[in-house]
Amino acid sequence: MSEHVDRLLTIMARLRDPVKGCPWDIDQTFATIAPYTIEEAYEVADAIERGNLDELRDELGDLLLQVVFHARMAEESGAFRFADVVQSITDKMIERHPHVFADGDWNSPDAVKHGWEGVKAAERAQKAAQNGDDKPSAIDGVALALPELMRAEKLTKRAARVGFDWTESRSIFDKLDEEIAELRAEMDAGAPKDRLKDELGDLLFCVANLARHLKVDPEEALRGTNAKFSRRFKAMEAAFEAAGHMLEELSLDELEAGWQTAKATDK
């Protein structure tokens, strides 16, 4: 196994070689590579969702390359090496599983979850101290780079741990109605874009909170709806084209009728 990893590290070093390397690879920075890292993570998730293990193998390789790429750039600047990345996650996994690697007594899924949160709380406190903060916040550690819908769900989850939460899901519908009314009022008043953006953000945040209460991943739910919309739109498009019609030439009523047909067929 180690020889395969070593070979990949050697290839990455060659690609980044200032003299004999690839001009594109040499030109990259942490910032320019970061979007590719996020994209590869999503492609891993996509392969899993479709149950395609051959693609999953390939996508995991692509994601590993991203780790190697970042580690190589860090090594060039003297910050850390790939081995340090491996050591860091190794230490973290051991620390977070005392019931496996030490004498911790986490003998049920709930106990593991509770213990895990305790360990992560200690890690947040340590990071806060390193950053000069007197006390960590309950919502520290929710990555800024997450998709915002996912981040909203995680923020509300963190807040809920200290009791800042609705007691039942149905209560959130009242808040949804309130946010919709506020957005509609701003629209009716001809509010500027910044106000509309603010109110729409409140509405989306509330939806993410509802998703958490329903134990539904909001990103997964939206991904499913996007796939459903794409499938139905393409079916409608194909049906109109088969009848000799271009979508741009049709009225909104005709398009709606075609959409309802595609929707009924899809069900």
Structure description:
With 267 residues, the protein is mostly helical. The protein has three domains: 2-95, Helix Hairpins, CATH 1.10.287; 137-216, MazG-like (Helix Hairpins), CATH 1.10.287; 220-266. It contains twelve helices and no strands. The chain has helices at 2-15, 23-27, 30-49, 53-77, 82-95, 98-101, 109-130, 148-161, 170-188, 193-213, 218-242, 252-266. The mean pLDDT is 89.
Task: List the SSEs and their pairings.
Layout: H1 2-15, H2 23-27, H3 30-49, H4 53-77, H5 82-95, H6 98-101, H7 109-130, H8 148-161, H9 170-188, H10 193-213, H11 218-242, H12 252-266
Helix pairs in contact: 1-4, 3-4, 8-10, 9-10, 11-12
| Tally of discrete structural domains | 3
The CATH architecture term of the largest domain is Orthogonal Bundle
The profile of the biggest β sheet is:
none
Order of helices and strands: HHHHHHHHHHHH
CATH class of the largest domain: Mainly Alpha
State the total count of DSSP E strands. 0
In terms of quaternary structure, what is this? single chain
CATH names the topology of the largest domain as Helix Hairpins
Number of helices: 12
C-alpha Rg (nearest Å): 25 Å
Overall shape: it is globular
- Proportion of residues in β-strands: under 5%
Termini separation comes to 48 Å
Poorly predicted runs of 5 or more residues: none
CATH superfamily of the largest domain: MazG-like
Mean pLDDT across residues = 89
Task: Estimate percent helicity.
Answer: over 70%
What is the SS-derived class? mainly alpha
Q: Key features?
A:
single chain; 267 residues; mainly alpha; Helix Hairpins; 12 helices
